[in-house]
């Protein structure tokens, strides 16, 4: 009896099983929209994701609906994954610690749902980055003919694909390759500050965090690795000089008092993160006049740091109030009205205000191996380059370039 029932159930539901395993059905209009997106992607450095375009077009021309559905689904899934994760520069993603807040949904399921709801355009439009820098770089890539610059543009387009699609209504973006921090509000650039970043031997990592407040006149909690470079010896052998510089040893740790020589300067942003990297002021203001500003142990030193603090704190924090708080000499904290996302990234190319592109020195050698698809849409074999200890002097001859 059980066997008969099983056979009957199989006969009843077999058509639905076969339908579930079949390819999604594409209309003529949906196929045309997919081909449109595939052609557009080729001009954005995603040529490896659209290698199936000739076969798809042939199936359409021959009226082979089954073959069309099969190729269209495979092409849409491949293109969707390319918009999400990039194409030929996966090796450059090493140590990139910025990601979508939640995993992307299954690509095949996303395509099937978009087809069923006839929202294929919405699927690709919301998946590709919407930041204005991405669009400007993609236009530059489509027009560029120099192979080296195309590779750099392709690498930076992929880096934008590795950024979250929703960065926030208001956020800070630090481009360590450009030695700049920028404030964005409602999709528009609202301010820009020069920064000093990590030396090539202690590069500033790529990560994201949230800024919740500002500490004025901060103490510097000196990391053991930095204390071992000389501060610990100074405290032990010349306590008077160490005291003059503000260094103290308490409970086995080394600290520096607030003051004009404090390594954090007059303010530090509260932005907890596992790298212990922060945005802060510095007494070494002369470094902001240099073109290549890679001198820190990894933290990001900000030019006009008090101006940035007042801007982030918002209404009620004009420069007079900030100066009064700093002038008191006391350590004080102020909370931001709302947590502010901050992204410490690395882009060696970005658009300028004149319609051109600025190319920056690849100080951390993170562009080595950048690639574009070849004429057959294949990505070159990539390997992660070996690290080499270099110093900012290696880049004294280099300057940010605009074309």
Briefly say what this structure is:
The protein has 403 residues and is of the alpha+beta class. The protein contains twelve helices and 16 strands.
Determine the fraction of residues in helical runs and give it as a percent range. 25-40%
Shape: elongated
Strand content: 15-25%
Unreliably modeled segments: 7-21, 383-403
Number of helical elements: 12
Mean pLDDT: 88
Taken in chain order, the helices and strands follow as HHHHEHHHHEEEEEHHEEEEEEHHEEEE
The structure class reads alpha+beta
Distance between the termini: 80 Å
Rg, rounded, reads 27 Å
- DSSP, total strands: 16
Can you offer a commentary on this structure?
- By secondary structure, the protein is an alpha+beta fold.
- Helices cover 37% and strands 20% of the residues.
- The protein contains 12 helices and 16 strands.
- Strands 1, 2, 3, 4, 5, 9, 10, 11, 12 and 13 form a 10-stranded mixed beta sheet that branches. Strands 6-8-7 form a 3-stranded antiparallel beta sheet.
- Strand 7 and strand 8 form a beta hairpin.
- Helix 7 packs antiparallel against helix 8.
- The longest helix has 21 residues.
- The C terminus is likely disordered.
Write the layout of secondary structure elements.
Elements: H1 2-21, H2 28-42, H3 53-61, H4 65-85, E1 96-97, H5 107-116, H6 120-127, H7 132-143, H8 147-161, E2 170-175, E3 180-185, E4 188-198, E5 206-216, E6 220-222, H9 224-237, H10 239-244, E7 247-250, E8 253-256, E9 267-270, E10 279-280, E11 294-296, E12 300-302, H11 305-313, H12 319-327, E13 332-345, E14 349-351, E15 357-359, E16 401-402
Parallel strand pairs: 1-5, 2-13, 4-11, 10-12
Antiparallel strand pairs: 2-3, 3-4, 4-12, 5-9, 5-13, 6-8, 7-8, 14-15, 15-16
InterPro entries: LD-transpeptidase_YkuD-like, LD_TPept_cat_dom, LD_TPept_scaffold_dom, Transpep_catalytic_dom
Organism: Sphingobium indicum F2
Active site: 280 (proton donor/acceptor), 299 (nucleophile)
């Amino acid at each position: 009896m059980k066997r008969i029932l099983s056979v009957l159930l199989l006969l009843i539901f077999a058509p639905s099983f076969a339908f579930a395993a079949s390819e999604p059905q594409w209309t003529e209009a949906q196929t045309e929209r997919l081909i449109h997106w595939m052609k557009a992607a080729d001009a954005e450095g995603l040529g490896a994701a659209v290698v199936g375009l000739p076969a798809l077009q042939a199936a359409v021309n021959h009226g082979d609906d089954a073959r069309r559905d099969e190729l269209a689904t495979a092409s849409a899934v491949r293109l969707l994954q390319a918009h999400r994760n990039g194409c030929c520069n996966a090796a450059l993603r090493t140590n990139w610690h910025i990601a979508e807040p939640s995993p992307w949904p299954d690509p095949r399921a996303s395509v099937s749902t978009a087809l069923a709801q006839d929202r294929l355009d919405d699927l690709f439009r919301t998946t590709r980055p919407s930041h204005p820098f991405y669009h400007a770089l993609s236009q530059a890539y489509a027009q560029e003919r120099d192979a080296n610059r195309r590779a750099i543009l392709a690498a930076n387009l992929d880096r934008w694909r590795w950024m979250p699609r929703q960065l926030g209504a208001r956020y800070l973006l630090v481009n360590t390759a450009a030695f700049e921090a920028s404030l964005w509000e409602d999709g528009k650039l609202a301010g820009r500050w020069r920064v000093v970043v990590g030396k090539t031997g202690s590069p500033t990592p790529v990560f994201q965090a949230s800024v919740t407040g500002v500490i004025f006149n901060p103490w510097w909690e000196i990391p053991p690795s930095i204390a071992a470079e000389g501060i610990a010896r100074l405290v032990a052998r010349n306590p008077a000089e160490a005291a003059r510089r503000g260094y103290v040893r308490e409970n086995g740790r080394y600290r520096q008092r607030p003051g004009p020589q404090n390594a954090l300067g007059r303010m530090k942003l509260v932005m907890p993160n596992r790298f212990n990297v922060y945005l802060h002021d510095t007494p070494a203001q002369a470094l902001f006049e240099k073109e290549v500003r890679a001198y820190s142990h990894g933290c990001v030193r900000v030019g006009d740091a008090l101006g940035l603090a007042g801007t982030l704190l918002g209404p009620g924090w004009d420069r007079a109030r900030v100066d009064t708080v700093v002038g008191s000499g006391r350590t004080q904290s102020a909370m931001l009205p709302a947590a502010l996302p901050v992204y410490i990234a690395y882009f060696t190319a970005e658009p300028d205000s004149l319609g051109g592109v600025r190319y920056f020195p690849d100080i951390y050698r993170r562009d080595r191996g950048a690639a574009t698809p070849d004429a057959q849409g294949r990505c070159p074999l990539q390997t992660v380059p070996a690290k080499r200890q270099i110093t900012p002097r290696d880049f004294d001859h280099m300057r940010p370039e605009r074309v």
